[in-house]
Amino acid sequence: MSDEKSIRDRLRSPADTSEANSGGDSRGSDVTESSFQQTDSAAVLAASGHDEEQRGTPHIPVGQAGHARHEQLSEREARRAERKVAGLFMLSVVGVIGFVVTFFAAPFKFAEPNNIWFTPLLAIFMALALTGIGAGAVLWAKTLMTDEEAVQDRYDFASPEDARTAAGQAFVEGFEASGLPRRKLLRNTLLLGAGSLAILPLPFLLDLGPYAHKERLFRTTAWKKGVRLVRRNGTPIRLGDLALGALETVYPDVPGGVFMPDTPTMLIRMEPSQLTPRTGREDWSIEGHIAYSVICTHLGCPVKLYEQQTHHLFCPCHQSTFDASNGAKVVFGPAARSLPQLALALDDEGYFIAQGDYSEPVGPSFWERS
Amino acid sequence: MQSRFQRLSGYGALLIALALVGGLYTAFLAPQGRAEDNPSTQQSANIAKGRELYLQGCSTCHGLGLQGGAGGPSLIGVGESAVIFQVESGRMPLKYGTVEAPRKKTKYTLDQIDQLAAFIGSHGGGPTMPKTGLDDGDLQQGGELFRTNCASCHNFAGKGGALSYGQYAPDLSDASARVIWGAMQSGPENMPRFSDNQLTPQEKKSITRYVEFITKSPQPGGAALGRYGPVPEGLVMWLVGITALVGVTLWIGARA
Questions:
Q1: pLDDT digit string (tens) for A70-117?
Q2: Measured between CB atoms, which of A240, A308, A319 is closest to B193?
Q3: Which member of B149, B197, B221 has the closest CB to residue A240?
Q4: ipTM given for this complex
Q5: Which chain A residues are Cβ-neighbours of B217 within 8 angstroms?
Q6: DSSP B57-112
Q7: Cα–Cα distance between B51 and A21 in angstroms, integer?
Q8: Overall pTM surpassing 0.80 (yes/no)
Q9: Which A residues in the span 215-244 are in contact with B, Cβ-Cβ below 8 Å?
C-alpha cells in the first residue's frame, strides 16, 4: 500500500491527513499547495519578526514523514540482497586486478598489431571496477537501507532586519566619510572621467562603417602585377611543370603569401582547345593554363575538388559546381557568382606570374559589394 | 663415318660441358632476379607475354593496335603507371560501364600486370615508376603534401568522398604503393595528374608512405569508427553512451 503512493502523497504529514481530504484518494492539489503556502507564509512570518510557534500551518518535523520501505523484507530476502551487493563489490576488485595485470603483463607497443586489445581491455576492466562499486552502492540503498523521505523548509531569503539596517547605515556613513558631497571638484572630475569611458568603444563601431573600406580590405589581395606563382614550399612554377589535367595550389611570392587567407589560387592545365575564355579575358590563360581563386563565392569554402575530365570544380560544403573550362561559371549549387579569375603571364625566365589582382573581390558576398 | 661420329661426339661433349658450366653459373654465381640477368631480353620477353595478355583480355575494347575502339579509349602513350593503377586495383578489365570504374578483385598476377604494363608502355612511352622503394619517403612531408594536394577529395583520413554528379573520390584503404603511384602519375578518370615535375619522385614517396601510415597502421584505441574523426565518435557517444546513461538513471530511480 505504502509502496504505491506517489512522492507527493508521502510529502504530507500524518497531521495533514485528517483536515485536507477525508477521502481515500489524497492526491488532491490542495495538499501540495498548502505545503508550498506553508513555506511562503513561514518566510513572511520570519520577515515580520514572528516566532516559529505563531506560524499558521503545522510544521513537519524532519524524519517523521518517512515510511520504512522494506519492512516486509524477510531475513532470507535480505541475505540474498546482501550477497548480491557483496558480489558487485567483489566485481570491482576483479576489475582492479584485471587492470593492473593487463597493464604490466601485456605492455603496449604501438607498432605491434597483436596489441589491439590492450586499450579496450584496460577500459573494460576499469569499467568493471567503477561499475561494481557504483552499482553495488545503488543496489544496497534500494534493497537494504530503510527508505525515509524528509521535508526541510527553505531558508528565508532576506537577511535579518537589524543586519539590513546596519548595512544601510554603513553605506551612508561611508558616503559621508568619502567627502564626495562636500568636495565638488572631486565629484565633477570623477563624473567626467567615468563619462569619457563611454567614448572608448566608439572606434570599434567605426570599423563597421565606410571608414574601414577606405583600404578596400575585402576587394584587394596580395596578388600584384609581376608577382610569381609559387607552391606551398616556395618554389616557382615553370611552363611545362604541370601535365595535362593537372591541378596545383599556388600562392603569391610575397612575404607571408602562403599563409594569407584570401590568396590561395588553383592553377589548372587542360587542352587549350577545351578552354572557352570569357570575352575580354582571352589573354588571361597561357597554353591551357588557367588560374582561379580557391575560395567559394557562396560561403568561402575551399573549392579544390577538381575533376580533370569534366573540368568541374566542386565545393564540398554545399555542392556548388563551377566549370573551370568556361570561366568558372556556376553550373550547379547555391553559389551566385563565378570564381574570381587570376590573369596569368610568363616572366623572362619562363615562370608563371600574375598580370594583376583578381578580376573581382574573392570569397562570399558582403554588404557594400556591387 | 667414324670420323664424322667422332666430330659430332666432340660437339656433343662441348655442348654438354657448356650446358654444365652455364647451369652451374646460373645456380651458384648468377645474380638473383631475372630482370638484371639481361634487361633487354627480359624486357622483350615481358613485352611479348604482355602482348598475348593484351590481345586476350583488353583488345576487345581498346583495339588490336591500342588505338581505342568501342567503349575503350586509346592506350597509346598512357604509360606503365596507368596500366599498373587500372589493373592492380581491379578497375580493369571493366565489368560494365558506370559513372566511375569501381575497385574490384585483381584479375591478374603482379607478374602479368608488369608484362601488360611493359607491352602498353612500349607504345608511345608515358610515365613509369621506380621498381622499389615506392614508400621510402618522409612521413611529415608526406602529410603536408597529402593535405595540400589530396585531402580535398580523398578526405584527410584517406576515406574518399563525393564529387559532382554521382562521381566520387575512392577510399584509399586498400590501395597498394604501386596503385597510389599509378594514380598520381596517370591521373585516372577525373583525378588530376601529378607529373614528376609537379610532385617530384621523392615527394611521391613521402605521400605514399603517409597514405600507408594513415590507412594501415594499428588502431590502439579499439574501434576506430572508420577514422572519420569527431563526427561518428560524437554520434556513438550520444546514441550509445547517453542511452546507456538514461537506462542507468531509470534503474537508480526505480523502486526495488
A1: 556 788 888 999 999 999 999 999 999 999 998 888 776 666 666 777
A2: A308
A3: B197
A4: 0.73
A5: 111
A6: HTHHHH-TTS--BTTB---TT-HHHHHHHHHHTT--S-SS--SSPPP----S-HHH
A7: 102
A8: no
A9: 232, 238, 240-244
